[in-house]
Amino acid sequence: MSIFAVVVAAAGNEELPWLSTPANIPGVIAVAAIDRTGRRASFSNYSEQPLVEPFLTAPGVDVLTTVPTTVDEGGYMEGSGTSFSAPIVSGVAALVRSMYPDYTAWQIIYMLLATADDRGDPGPDKEFGIGVVNAQRAVDPNIHLALLDAYEGNDRPEFAKRFPLGRCVEARVNPVEDLDWYRWQLYFKAPIQVSYSLPSDLRAQVRVEKASGSGGPVLQLDPSRKALTRELPPGQYRILVQGADPEQASLGLYRLCAKVVVKLTDISRHWAKDSIQALADAGVVRGYPGGKFLPDQSMTRAEFVTLVSQAAGLQPLSYTVGFRDVKKGDWFSGHVAAAAKAGYIKGYKDGTFRPNQPITRNEMSVVLAKVLKLSLGGSLPFKDKKQIPSWAAPSVAALVQKGYVSGYPDKTFRGSGKATRAEIATVVNRACLRDQVCVEN
Question: What is the pTM of this model?
């Protein structure tokens, strides 16, 4: 296949959890269908492995065609199927080609994937793949300039960029002399799924090792193995991506994905399941023994600070910070110390932290406003706003203004009430994973 030929294929219309041939061939853009409501069309095939088989989605129900109806009607027919979705993606690819005629096929594919609208679960998912094709973003020259490699400057271990677990990064690596370094913090022992994709005519290798650099790679991918899952102990890791072919002369645009494999057994029908699973994929939460998350239960102050600290990418400290009821050796002490050092928490006037006390919605708001470094203040749209104390109201208002928190259907906030684990997961996912606002770089 020519390095300039972009091949697009329909995913298939059998409602199967895999892509039909030739959509499943590496290097081909597979296209599934969505209906007019934005949901995956009931007939459309999809992939249970969106990290391994990246695909896009596009409208595929009641699509207006150029096939005339009867002479009397004087109109055009509509059609449904992934074969009506694929031409939309082909057309967007052609627009990109017309604006950037020197792009290789993989550069065009990369731009379509990188500019797609994320739908469903954050990052790749089986229903929508990488996302819904977005023609306007795909041809935006400012986006092209930014996406050539937003991670450039990471060619040495000490300049490693933080890798967002649970998501993918798109970047480029030149033949052999270029190196891309990333890093991630794993807070608990868990399986890690790592995969990468790049054009069939390009070769690269991926190595995961301990941040200390000792002991050799703990996980390695190469042209013969592009996806692997392996259980790793907690700790700091760094990831190296480099070209594997000295004869390779073209630009190496790649997509690298990694997530923590955590199976939670009690969220499948919960309203907050997407946010909870996103935090699990990112290695922020793992639930209780037995795989339960208990989404409707309250969360203790120790659990909350640990979750926020991990979402922000803080390194747990080996010492305590003066709370009378937090002892070195407590499972949460390292994260409480890190959060206190960062200025996220202060504790109570009596010198306690009260780690086992459920956190309230007011307290949650104050801590998150500090983590997100928000400008405090604003209006409060709640019927019970007078019941929100002065020490919490500015933080609540700031979070409301950003769309991170909302009230209940009866238009109350209930700030003194206990924040549920699902509510906290939703807010943290919106700010720390979706918007990447609280991430320590």
Answer: 0.67
Q: How far apart are CA 54 and CA 30, in angstroms?
A: 7
pLDDT of 441 strictly over 50: no
- Any idea what DSSP says for residue 410? T
Question: Measured between alpha carbons, how far is 237 from 220 in angstroms, rounded to an integer?
Answer: 13
d(CA 58, CA 61): 9
Cis peptide before 22 (omega within 30 of 0): yes
Q: Using one digit for the tens of pLDDT, what is the confidence trace for 256-311?
A: 899 999 999 999 999 999 999 999 999 999 999 889 999 999 999 999 999 999 99
Separation between Cα atoms, residue 340 and residue 359, nearest integer Å: 16
Judged by DSSP in three states, 208 sits in strand
Residue 315 and residue 185 in contact, taking contact as beta carbons nearer than 8 Å: yes
CATH number for the domain whose boundaries are 8-147? 3.40.50.200
Residue 16 near residue 27, CB atoms below 8 Å: no
Size of the chain in residues = 441
Which H helix or E strand runs over 63? strand 63-68
Q: CB burial class (10 A; 0-12, 13-18, 19+) of residue 176?
A: middle
For the chain, give every domain's residue range.
Answer: 8-147, 157-260, 273-434
Q: What is the CATH number of domain 157-260?
A: 2.60.120.380
Phi–psi pair at 369, nearest 5 degrees? -60, -35
